[in-house]
Structures are given as C-alpha cells and as structure tokens.
Design a protein that fits this description.
Number of domains of chain C: 1
Order of helices and strands of chain C: HHHHHHHH
Radius of gyration of chain C: 22 Å
CATH architecture of chain C: Orthogonal Bundle
Distance between the termini of chain B: 53 Å
CATH architecture of chain B: Orthogonal Bundle
Number of domains of chain B: 1
Number of helices of chain B: 8
Distance between the termini of chain C: 48 Å
Structural class of chain B: mainly alpha
Largest sheet of chain B: none
Helix content of chain B: over 70%
CATH class of chain C: Mainly Alpha
CATH topology of chain B: MetI-like fold
Oligomer: heterotrimer
Radius of gyration of chain B: 21 Å
CATH class of chain B: Mainly Alpha
Largest sheet of chain C: none
Chains: A alpha/beta (258), B mainly alpha (220), C mainly alpha (225)
C-alpha cells in the first residue's frame, strides 16, 4: 500500500559526531504529513541527538536535513524561520521562569511572528484550555507541578503552529502519576493528525501513538515498522533483545533488592 | 554639642549632598550601561573588543578610584590638551569604575541562566538577539540583583573621594568647616547623618528587593 | 618620554622615592591586613553564636562597615578622636585603626558566610560523635570552610591595598604624596610630569593588586569543583 501523503521532512545520510564519537552514522529518514513516528533505542543510541539535529541545535558533520525542501542548518541565516515550523519540547520543563503561563505561550507568537497581541492571547488561552490549564493563566511556572509545566511547554510549542512536533523524552523527568496527563495531550494531537517525531521510553505509549516505530542503535536505524508487528514480533535480534532487556531489567532489579 | 552651629551648617551639607547624589546616581546609571555593553562583548567574545574589555575590567578593578580620578582629571588633559569639568570627571570616573564591577555582575548572571533556556527559546524560532532580550537577559538581571545592589552601595561609598578633584561634596564641606571653626564633633555627626541619608535607603531597598525576587515574583 | 613626562622618574632619586612611598602604603596595608585576618576570624566565629547580644553587636558593627565610607571613618578617627578624647592620633595610626576596623568587619562577615555554608548535618554528626564545640570547629568545620574563605579573603586584601590610597586625603606620606611632591618640584621643567607620575602610580597599584586578584580567581576555580 503506497503512502500518498506528502513528504514533509527528508533526512539524507545524516552524520553527527562529538569529536571521535560518532553518534549518528549515515541515517536516512522520510516523514510524511500527519505521520507519528516514535523513536526508541538504548541510551546513547543517538535518538535525542537526532531530534536536536532536526531542530538545527547541533552542528552536523555530513548529509542533510530538508524541511519542505529547505535545508536545516544551525548556522544559516534563516534558521530562526525554519525553527518556527518545528515545535520542540525537551525533557526538562524549560518554561521561562520570569514570565507568567500565558506570557510563556504568547511570547514567541508576539515577538517572532509579530502577531497582534489580542489574537495571540486569544489563541494562547484556547491552547491552555485544550491542555486543561486555563485556570493557571496568570501563575508563574514555579507554582505548577511538573506535569502541568510540561503541558504548558506543549501549548507553548503549539502556539507557533508548527508543522512538526519534536518531543524529546518529555515524560522522563516526571513523577509517574503525572506521566499520563501529559501523554493524553499527545494522544489527542495524534488523533488530530499532527505530524510528530517522538523519542520516548514509555513502550505502551509508543505502541498506542505510533504510526511507525523506529529502533535506533549505534546511530543506525536497525529496524522500523508498524507498532503491532514491532512490539509483538520484531524482525531483528537486536530489537528483540532491546525489548527483552526492558522486561528483564525490572525482574533483575527486583531480585537485587532482596 | 553645639546644635546651633549644626543648624547653621545644614544648608551647606544639604547642597553637598545633592552634588554627591547627582554625581553618584548619574555615575551609577552610566556604570550599568557600560557594564551591560561590556558584558555583552565578553559574552559573545567579539574579537578585539573582547580583549579590550578584559583589560579594562582588570585595570579598573585593580586600581583605586582616587588615582583613576587623579589620572583622568590632572594627567589626561595635559597630554590630550582638552580639559575636563570636575563634575563630569567625577561622573565618568565613577561610571568607568562601576562599569568594570557591573560587567562582572552581568557576566555571572548570564552564566547562571540554564543553557536549556536558550535552546528552548531558539527552538521557538527566536533569533539570538531575541533570545538574549526576552529570555536570557531578564533572568540574568534578576539573578544578579544582589550583586548590583552591593555594587551600588560600594559606588555610593566611593563618591567620598570626589573632594580630591576639588568637588564640593560632603567630605569637602566637613573638612572645610572643621578647618575654619573647629566644630569637629558637630561636623562629623552631620557627615555621618548625611551619608546615612544617601546610603541607608539603598541598603534597605536592596534587602526588600532581594527578598521579593527570591520569594515573590518568580524564580525556582 | 618628555611628552609623557616619564623623564622626571629617572631624575635623581625620584623613582626611588616613589617606590619608598609605595612602601609606606604597603606597610600600612600589611599591618591592617594581618590584624584584619586574625581578629576577623575570631569576629566571624563570634557572629555565628546564637546569643542575642552577640547578634545585635555584630549586626551594628557590620552595618557601620557596610554603610560608612572608609574615608568618613578615617575622618572620625583622625579629626574626631583628637577632639573628643584629647588624644593625638597620628595619621598613620589613624589609618591602621580604620582599615583594621573595616577589615575585621569584612573578614568576619566572610568567615561567618563560609562557616554557615557548611551544612548543619556536619555539625550534628560531629556532635553525635561526642566532639566538643572546639573540636567540631577545629577538626570538621574549619578545614571545609577554609576553601571557601581563602579566595574571598585574598580579594579582601586587594581591596585593602587599594584603600590605602585614601591616606593621601588625611596627609600620610605615602605613594600619592610623594607623587604630588615630585610633580610640584618639576612643574616648570617638566610640565607633563603629572602624566608620568600618576600613570606610574596607577601602574604600581595595578602591578601589586592584579597578581593577587588572579591568584584568588585561580584558587576559586580550582576549589569550586
């Protein structure tokens, strides 16, 4: 079944290294409009670096990244314009501590996109409503819980009306009981057809949200496929081991505790 | 104590206080501007200007204001051939001294802002200049408030050497009156009172602002 | 050389006299620094006491040091002491008294800060091991506090050295005064002497203070991680 949807992001032979350490080694990837891609893999496999490269936050050593046929290059003059099409959410809740919640959400639309203040605020409020935090509108970030902060961060990224959302382990620093409220927002976005690239360690979430799962190891895509097949019957030995290790780790640590 | 004499001296001290306040606060405002500019230069490591800034900071932090003033007021005009007004010299001298200290305060504030703040602002499509203006600088300033207040108190205290370049400040008036009438105790009491008037409010305000920034407005 | 007025420096004993003048400033600094460091340590420990009287006394002392310009303090001792106590305090002694008074306060505050930076559980666990108050300070707290303290007190030393320039304002013969004398004496022959002399004095202060500041910064970086 050929996918007719338009390709919005094209990564060709991407290479990224820190000194002698090659983190991404000739990676190719195509992302179509409306697709939700989940990237998983062992720590240090380059999945966070991949997202940072797509957003032009890392200098790359080879290959290229094309967003709507425009090259993403952290050093180029129009990088700020390109980044407006990419909404990134990091692991740490990185809200601006000196701005209220609504100011956090509207700052970029107002100063970057030069949209009228009233319009930006109205849209910001709609987004806060959507993530269930309109009542926190005038609070400061430190008054919010981790999960609430992360929902605001998502609203802040959405306020720029990005074509693609890049989510970098957005629940990794959260207390377990707050993970769900954040991931629900993402599931909602997926339902609406938002294009997303998600790096996560939450396997059941990955399974629920993904159109396509990409398993990354050693800077290569080792396996990719639809979640039903990947999680139940991975083709490669490495992916199988990875999914296995997941289960084993839990049992082992339990044994050690005793 | 001769209170009558003290009342007589009041207008002289008051006039001197206004002079100190004028030179002091204009100098302090100047020092904030210089400090910000120099901190930006050192932050972005702009070639040539960066080296000049580092030299300026070290030079002004490691020499006494009194001698900086002597050099500016008596020595430079000799070589440059242009005179400088004593009051302007006082303001400029204080601004240059303070600039070196304020630059260090700004710098440590800038360093204390988490790098993730810059990255997330960049990823929202801001240019480097917008990131600095809307995200990094406001946080750096509030992180440095304590150090700014300490610098302001330090600079206000430093104004006491202005009489060395023949400005009629509080020290000048006190010394003059002691020489003329030998009302030493009275003059010294007035001197202390007037310096309290100048510096105490800043000291108190500093404590209040610091507390407010730490517990109130934002920060985490 | 003549344009910059450096020629006067090499005339007769002028350079020597300037250095000797700097010597007086250095001498006053060294005496005040030693007094400040030693008494400041004691004062700092005194400030950490919970005793309310000790708190009020140290608070008032610190506020005076924090708010009053050193020059005002210098005037009070130099002009005031003579008048009020009938003592004839020399300018040199006045400056040593004032710089020490100021230095002890500043040093004490630094000592207090470094002592209080040591977490409470360090005190508690030492006490739990049966140590006396003296033993806790000597074996546990002071060794840890010293690393914080040393860079800051080195900075205090440069501040005290710079402050010696104030002695000129009450007329102690030292580097500034010698400089002025040389300028006066050469006013006719070498009108630009003022540039050379003040430039040299500025440089001398810089050459003394800068290496000390660098040392403080080096230690601070080295010990911060």
């Amino acid at each position: 079944m050929a996918d007719e949807r338009e390709i919005v992001l094209r990564i060709e032979n991407l290479t990224k290294s820190f000194g002698d350490n090659v983190v991404i080694d000739g990676l190719d990837l195509e992302v179509r409009a409306g697709e939700v891609i989940v990237v998983i893999g062992p720590s240090g496999c380059g999945k966070s670096t991949l997202l940072r490269c797509i957003n032009g936050l890392e200098e790359i050593q080879g290959g290229r990244i094309l967003l709507d046929d425009q090259e993403v290059d952290g050093r180029s003059k129009n990088i700020a314009q390109i980044r407006q099409k990419l909404g990134m959410v990091f692991q740490s809740y990185d809200l601006f501590p000196h701005k209220t919640i609504i100011e956090n959400v509207t700052l970029s639309p107002i100063v970057v996109q030069k949209r009228p203040k009233e319009e930006a605020i109205a849209e910001g409020e709609a987004l806060l409503e959507r993530v269930g935090l309109l009542d926190k509108r005038d609070d400061y970030p430190r008054q919010l819980s981790g999960g609430q902060k992360q929902r605001v961060t998502i609203a802040r990224a959405l306020a720029m009306q990005p074509e693609i959302m890049l989510l970098d382990e957005i629940t990794a620093a959260l207390d377990p009981e707050m993970v769900h409220e954040v991931l629900d927002v993402i599931l909602d976005l997926a339902r609406e057809g938002k294009t997303m690239i998600i790096v996560t360690h939450e396997m059941s979430f990955a399974r629920a949200v993904a159109d396509r799962v990409i398993f990354l190891e050693g800077g290569h895509i080792v396996e990719e496929g639809i979640p039903e097949l990947f999680f139940t019957n991975p083709k490669t030995e490495r992916a199988r081991e990875f999914l296995h290790t997941f289960e084993f780790t839990a049992v082992r640590s339990h044994t050690v505790e005793e | 104590m001769d209170f009558g004499a003290m009342v007589d001296y009041l207008p002289l001290f008051e006039q001197a206080m206004w002079l100190t306040l004028r030179i002091g606060w204009i100098g302090i405002l100047g020092s904030l501007v210089i400090g910000l500019v120099v901190a930006m230069i050192t932050h972005y490591k702009i070639p040539v200007l960066y080296q000049i800034s580092l030299f300026y900071i070290e030079l002004y932090r490691n020499t006494p204001l009194l001698i900086q003033l002597f050099f500016m007021y008596f020595a430079l005009p000799r070589v440059l051939g242009v005179g400088i007004d004593a009051e302007a010299c006082g303001m400029l001298g204080l601004a240059l001294l303070g600039g070196a200290y304020m630059a260090e305060s700004f710098r440590s504030g800038l360093e204390a802002v988490e790098p993730i703040q810059t990255e997330s602002a960049l990823s929202l499509g801001m240019t480097k200049a917008q990131v600095m203006r809307y995200v990094v600088l406001p946080q750096a300033v509030s992180l440095s408030v304590q150090s700014f207040v300490a610098n302001i108190i330090f600079l206000l205290k430093e104004t006491s050497v202005f009489s060395a370049i023949s400005l009629m400040d509080l020290m000048f008036v006190a010394k003059d009156l002691i020489g003329l009438y030998y009302n030493t105790t009275e003059c010294l009491v007035l001197l202390v009172i007037f310096y309290l008037i100048i510096i105490l409010p800043v000291s108190i305000l500093g404590t209040v602002v610091e507390r407010k920034l730490r517990y109130g407005a934002f920060g985490s | 050389m003549e344009l910059l007025g450096l020629d006067v420096l090499f005339k007769g004993s002028n350079a020597m006299r300037l250095l000797q003048g700097l010597g007086v400033a250095v001498e006053i600094s060294i005496i005040s620094v030693v007094i400040s460091l030693v008494l400041g340590m004691l004062f700092g420990i005194f400030m950490t006491w919970k005793n309310p009287v000790a708190r009020v006394i140290s608070r008032i002392y610190l506020e005076i040091v924090r708010i009053m310009p050193q020059l005002v303090l210098l005037f009070i001792v130099f002009f005031g002491a003579t008048r009020a106590l009938g003592l004839n305090v020399s300018a040199e002694l006045s400056s040593i008294i004032v710089f020490s008074f100021w230095g002890v306060g500043e040093m004490g505050d630094l000592v207090r800060g470094s002592l209080e930076s040591i977490p409470v559980h360090q005190y508690e666990s030492a006490a739990a091991l049966g140590m006396t108050k003296g033993q806790i300070y000597y074996h546990v707290v002071i060794p840890q506090a010293v690393r914080r303290l040393i860079p800051m007190s080195i900075n205090l030393v440069t501040r005290m050295i710079k402050t010696t320039s104030l002695i000129l304002m009450i007329g102690v013969v030292e580097v500034m005064k010698v400089g002025q004398q040389i300028i006066e004496a050469n006013r006719m022959v070498s009108p630009n002497a003022v540039f050379g002399i003040y430039g040299t004095i500025l440089l001398l202060y810089f050459l003394v203070c800068w290496p000390i500041s660098m040392l403080a910064r080096h230690l601070e970086k080295k010990w911060s991680n």
